[in-house]
Automatic annotation (TrEMBL), chain A:
Protein name, per record: ABC-type sugar transport system permease subunit
CDD domains: TM_PBP2 (cd06261)
SUPFAM superfamilies per the UniProt record, alphabetical: MetI-like
Source lineage: Bacteria, Bacillati, Bacillota, Bacilli, Bacillales
Subcellular locations according to the entry: Cell membrane
Similarity remark: Belongs to the binding-protein-dependent transport system permease family.
A matching Pfam family: BPD_transp_1
TrEMBL record, chain B:
Gene Ontology biological process terms, A to Z: transmembrane transport
CDD domains linked to this entry: TM_PBP2
Its membrane topology: Multi-pass membrane protein
Full protein name: ABC-type glycerol-3-phosphate transport system permease component
Source taxonomy: Bacteria, Bacillati, Bacillota, Bacilli, Bacillales
Length: 286, 292
């Protein structure tokens, strides 16, 4: 039996090995190297890269001196807390609607996924420059004016942010919709019939049947959304890191430190949200 | 309410019960489609309409001039545009194909095989998802230099193959395949290669289609490898070419706008085609996969 087990694990390793090699060379090693650099003062000279060990100075600088970084970081966290739940709920609703048998279903699916295709890359940047990611002439609507006149309330701030960025938020939901639809397609129709016979309404069978069985995919989607939201190439924090990479006084060491701080924050946000969801999920559904 | 008309994708008849869905879907769809329509119209605008303020949504005097400029200018800079386009197409095809194979294989092993470090590998992968890609640019450059890949065609391909998000998604899907199915195949004498090609791949087609779309976008839109690792103009990609059109450095910001608009459309259309081809895969396989 032991021989079979070793063979099994060997085959397993064989299947992962191409991935491990690619990952180790082009992702894992550069990551570790940037951790090393984050404790250094890096100077790029004609003869190569010179490093000087400065302990935690880079990290200290980020929090004490660099006001832009901390400011953008808090703004990013605020926006993420608002956006992520909206993206998840929105994509779930759209996925449920698109899972119904309606006319032009294929066309609708294409339209809702399309933004993802252009949301990365140069096309998106151009669209933002043109200002068409916001609702046109929104400033003229009464509701917008009413909100801007009293901008101090917390709720007002959220609403204002939502109105301004609605298209952007909706645009982040394409892949999530796709994942939800794939999961919905896998659901057993018989369960719904059974629930119906037992007298459950559509509303009840959504809460008691659909949602619990979608639960693993909701977690997957939450992780995906947080990651995509943070890694989006036009994200202000990433822009800040990139500009610091080639500044003379800060340089690559500092940029590495910034990325590691950012990384830790994202990891923490993920751990918190997924942890909370799993706990709650276990309580409700098991 | 959803029981009529069997398994057809689009029911052929409109039914009153569908009305409530349309009430939600149509406004949202219009809302989301607007920018895309804009990309199309923008490419055909003559120069005065491109710079009109406030920007106009529809084109009034459509023209092919932007496309003519785009193809014409390329010849003047020494390397024809078709060369960039050819590079991009070859690179994209190879990367998408290999990424799918590598991530599904790894996903299968991490999900259904037992070996040491299995969990650790997947956790490292999830952590790697969260790291700012720009921060690894210089260390990555050093490695690529060390491997002698600077100015090599392979530099566009190799760094993109191990895509963390791909492995993440495909593993989640393979997790949902019941172990009994694989055990049963084993009892019938199926080898690992057999199980992989005849069971795993057909069952996770939706995930594969998703990875294909994601990796396609990643490669097709990537400018990083052309900017950092390649000096030879003839080896650069189309997205790099497009980004040079509007850049300040070349000094043709005004003239470049029209060409950039046309190039955005050319960049965008393959994405559209890929998605339309693959989306039917995503939508239909799961329904008939036989997993309960």
């Amino acid at each position: 039996m032991k021989g079979l087990k070793t063979k099994n694990s060997l085959v397993g390793l064989l299947f992962v090995s191409p991935w491990i090699i690619g990952f180790a060379i082009f992702t894992a090693f550069p990551l570790l190297y940037s951790l090393f650099l984050s404790f250094q003062k890096v100077k790029i000279t004609t003869s190569g890269i010179q490093t000087e060990f400065i302990r935690f100075e880079n990290f200290q600088y980020a929090f004490v001196v660099d006001a832009i970084y901390t400011e953008r970081l808090t703004k990013y966290l605020e926006e993420m807390i608002i956006s992520v739940p909206i993206i998840i709920v929105f994509s779930l609703i759209i996925a449920l609607l698109l899972n119904q048998r309606i006319k032009f279903r294929g066309m609708f699916r294409t339209i809702f996924f399309l933004p993802v295709i252009i949301a990365s890359g140069p096309v998106m940047k151009e669209l933002i420059d043109q200002g068409i990611t916001t609702i046109p002439t929104i400033e003229k609507y009464a509701i917008y004016q009413a909100l801007t006149e009293s901008p101090d309330g917390f709720l007002n701030g959220i609403l204002l942010y939502l109105i301004k960025n609605l298209i952007m938020i909706l645009w982040f939901s394409g892949v999530q919709i796709l994942i939800f639809i794939a999961a919905l397609q896998k659901m057993d129709k018989q369960i719904y019939e059974a629930a119906k016979i037992d007298g459950a309404s559509n509303w009840e069978s959504f809460w008691k049947v659909t949602l619990p069985s979608l639960f693993p995919m909701i977690i997957v989607n939450t992780i995906y959304t947080i990651v995509m939201y943070s890694m989006f190439s036009l994200n202000p924090i990433i822009e800040h890191i990139q500009t610091n990479m080639f500044k003379v006084d800060t340089g690559f060491g500092y940029a590495s430190a910034l990325s590691w701080i950012y990384f830790l924050i994202i990891a923490l946000a993920l751990a918190l949200s997924v942890g909370a969801m799993t706990l709650k999920g276990k309580k409700n559904y098991n | 309410m959803s029981a009529f008309h069997g398994t057809k994708m689009n029911p052929s008849k409109f039914h009153k019960s569908q009305l409530k869905f349309f009430v939600f879907l149509i406004p949202l769809a219009v809302f989301m489609a607007l920018p895309i329509v804009y990309v199309f119209f923008h490419a055909f605008k003559p120069i005065d309409e491109l710079f009109a303020y406030p920007p106009r949504f529809f084109v009034e005097k459509p023209t092919w001039q932007n496309f003519a400029d785009l193809f014409g200018r390329a010849n003047a800079s020494g390397v024809p545009m078709s060369r960039y386009l050819f590079n991009s197409i070859v690179i994209t095809l190879i990367v998408v194909f290999l990424t799918i194979i590598i991530s599904t294989m790894a996903g299968y092993a991490l999900s259904k095989k037992e070996f040491k470090l299995k969990k650790t590998i997947f956790e490292i992968n999830t952590l790697a998802l969260m790291f700012v890609p720009a921060a690894v640019a210089i260390p990555r450059y050093l490695i690529i230099d060390e491997l002698g890949l600077i100015n090599n065609f392979l530099v566009h391909i190799l760094p993109l193959l191990a895509m963390p998000i791909g492995l993440f998604l495909v593993k989640q899907f393979i997790d949902q395949i019941p172990n009994e199915l694989i055990e049963a195949a084993k009892l019938d004498g199926a080898s690992d290669i057999h199980i992989f090609t005849k069971i795993i791949i057909p069952l996770v087609k939706p995930a594969i289609a998703t990875i294909a779309i994601l990796s396609f976008q990643l490669v097709w839109n990537s400018v990083e490898s052309s900017t950092l690792y390649v000096n030879d103009e003839g080896l650069k990609t189309f997205s790099f070419y497009m980004s040079t059109l509007t850049s300040q450095a070349t000094g043709n910001v005004v003239a470049g706008q029209g060409m950039a608009a046309a190039a955005s459309l050319i960049m965008f259309v393959p994405n559209l085609i890929i998605f339309i081809v693959l989306q039917s895969q995503v939508m239909n396989t799961m329904a008939h996969s036989g997993i309960k």
